[in-house]
Each structure stands twice: as structure tokens, then as C-alpha cells.
Amino acid sequence: MANFCPKCGGKNNLDDKFCKNCGANLIDPVEAPKEGPKSEKSPAPARTASAPSKPFIILIISSCLQLLVWGLLLYWIWYSYGCAVGKYPGTGDQACQWFYATFSGKNNGGGGNGNNNSYDGCVATGCGNLWRCNGNYYSSEKQIKVDACFTLGNRPDKIYSSWSGICRQCP
Fold it and tell me: Is 0.85 topped by the overall pTM?
């Protein structure tokens, strides 16, 4: 027959005086275990209270958002560097043209004429040394839309007082 230790619940023989697992006195037992017999292994350490952990889905979403933000930041740095070294010429991206003009030292302006109808940043127009004008004006009560290249003296903003649009020059 077997006897169980009142302290650890370990299995012992009836004639044993001390527990084989924990060394407790078996002759004068203090209390019987409340949970019944336990396995011969030593009891698991008690868990200490800890802060509740976040649900797994929150951790996944948070990680994905962090990856997205870091990815966008690295892409912006890579794209800005490409703009600064002239990797993307003629894209029409004004921010890219600004990076290139700022970091290459080629900020020659666009030959602004002092009013708000001219663009002072150099963005390729495809007109060579001519002026690219995009907008509209009125002639004989009729609206005329313009998107073409002009010489300086032939620009619609210089000829028509009803001109509404932009004229810029950059090869």
C-alpha cells in the first residue's frame, strides 16, 4: 500500500517515516492534501501576477502599421535621393524638381516676369527655350483654351488682359 505526503502529495510507502520527495515528517502528519494525490514530480512554482498582455490581433495590427510607416519613410528617402541626383528628369513632379534644383546647384529659376502668371521653378515643359502657357482667355466674348509653346513677346499673358492661367519657361 501507498501513503501520500501531506505536504507535497508525493507517493510514499506506509513504513516510511519521511517523504521521499520533500523530506516532510510522515509519522506526525499535519494536514492531508486538499486536492488529493499529486504526481511524483515536484510541484510547479506559483505564478506571479503580471500585467495583462495585449490581445494578439492588436500586436499584429500594430506591427503592420509600424512596418508601413517605416516603409513609407524609407521610400520617401530613396525617392528624394533619386530626385536630388537627377534620376527622374522631366517627371513634372515639382517636389522632385525642387530637390534636384536645391541639391545640384542648378536652381536657375524659370525667368519669372514679376507677376503671378509665371512659374519661378524650373519644371521641364518640352518647349525648349520657349514658354509653355496653359490656361484660357476671352476674345470677342468667346473663351479660348490654350496649352502651347510661345515666344516671350507672343505669350497670351502679355497680349490678353483676360488671361487666366500659367506661363513657364524651362527646357
Answer: no
